[in-house]
Amino acid sequence: EVQLVESGGGLVRPGGSLRLSCAASGFTFSSYAMSWVRQAPGKGLEWVSALNSGGGSTSYASSVKGRFTISRDNAKNTLYLQMNRVKPEDTAVYYCAKPGTGLGPPYDYWGQGTQVTVSS
Q1: Average pLDDT for residues 33-49, to the nearest whole number?
Q2: For 50-81, what is each residue's pLDDT tens digit?
Q3: Whole-number mean pLDDT of the chain?
Q4: Does the N-terminal peptide bond of residue 105 adopt cis geometry, omega within 30 degrees of 0?
Q5: Which 3-state string (H, E, C) describes 87-110?
Q6: How far apart are the C-alpha atoms of 44 and 10, rounded to whole Å?
Q7: CA 51 to CA 35: how far, in whole Å?
Q8: What pLDDT sits at residue 44?
Q9: Average pLDDT for 16-32
């Protein structure tokens, strides 16, 4: 059974930092690209970042480029999102997602999400 479990969310002040983790199991993690997707209150899903299977190729939404860094540890089956210089508009539930093929979408598995709130 595929499982994606996010952690690391919480309350952070504007300008601060936070690192999200996504522990993966039930599939060959190192064979798949992975993504982070977020949903702000009252809004739709927004793709944040993607990383290829080996970790050497990344892409970011313009809203987070230069502030967020996606990475992975294939030995630990874990995906990360380092969030720096956060802004109130980064407030959202953050999900890690596994694409069916390629970089996605579509995504065939999602985690339960972790809440990030940016507020002073």
Answers
A1: 97
A2: 999 998 999 999 999 999 999 999 999 999 99
A3: 96
A4: yes
A5: CHHHCEEEEEEEECCCCCCCEEEE
A6: 21
A7: 6
A8: 97
A9: 97
CA angle 42-48-49, nearest 5°?
A: 165
Concatenated DSSP letters of 39-53 = E-TTS-EEEEEEE-T
10 Å CB burial of residue 77 (0-12, 13-18, 19+) is middle
According to the model, what pLDDT value does residue 102 have? 83
Using CA atoms, how far residue 25 sits from 19, 21, 30, 40, 113, in Å, is 20, 13, 11, 27, 16
Residue labelled with tokens 């860094």:
69
Name, in order, each residue with C-beta under 8 angstroms of 73's C-beta and a sequence gap of 6 or more: 80
Look up residue 69 and give its amino acid: T
DSSP state of 30: G
